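Avidin
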Amino acid sequence: MVQATPFLLVLFLALGAHGLSVKKCSLTGRWVNDLGSNMTIMTMKSNGDFAGIYYTAVSATTKKIERSPLLGSQHQPYLLKQPTFGFTVHWTFSDSITVFTGQCFVDEDGKEVLKTMWLLRSHADKPIDDWKATLVGYNEFKRLESPMEPGW
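Tokens:
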């Protein structure tokens, strides 16, 4: 039994080391989602608040799509390696606002991915039209490795 103790200790440490090696996921930078929309998170404050720009690839409006501001917050940025977050996009070209919530993960290949759900609220002219004013969806964002363009 005494000889098994060092073996079990080494085995325990080897298995536990995998959990310690998880890469930290950072929201700052450029991202693209499964629909081709681009998002850039430019600033991250020490309390987890952040700001950026969102450029959607899809829209129901006939107006020209423009870059729109986003504001959000990341939960416990100094504690969690794969943090939860939420942000709001105020669309500058339409009468709607979208809120996203999700989590930043590091996948098996060491690549960062954002798994999100969103609610898009459009303006309703009358209370009877409220039923069709909110849409819900899911997006997955992958990091863009290219440097930020001027103006982003």
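The chain has a mean pLDDT of 83.
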